[in-house]
Amino acid sequence: MRRQPRPRGSGHYDKPPMMNVDLVKRLADRGLEIPHPDRAARYLRHIGYYRLSPYTIPFQQGGPDHQFRTGTSFDDVLDLYVFDRELRLVVLDALERAEVALRAALTDHMSTRYDDAHWYVDPSHFDQQRRHGNFLTLVRKICEERLLGKPDSAQDHLVHVSALEHYLTTYGTPEMPPSWLMVETLSIGQLTSLYRNLQRRADRTEIAKSIGLTAPVLESWMLTYTRVRNISAHHGRLWNVGLGVYPMIPTSPKISWLSGTDSLPARSRKRLYPVLVSLQSILNEISPHSSWAQRLHNLLNTRPKLNLIAMGPLKTGLKILFGLATSAEFHCSLSEDHMITSSSERSTVGRHSVN
Question: What pLDDT is recorded for position 29?
Answer without folding.
Answer: 97
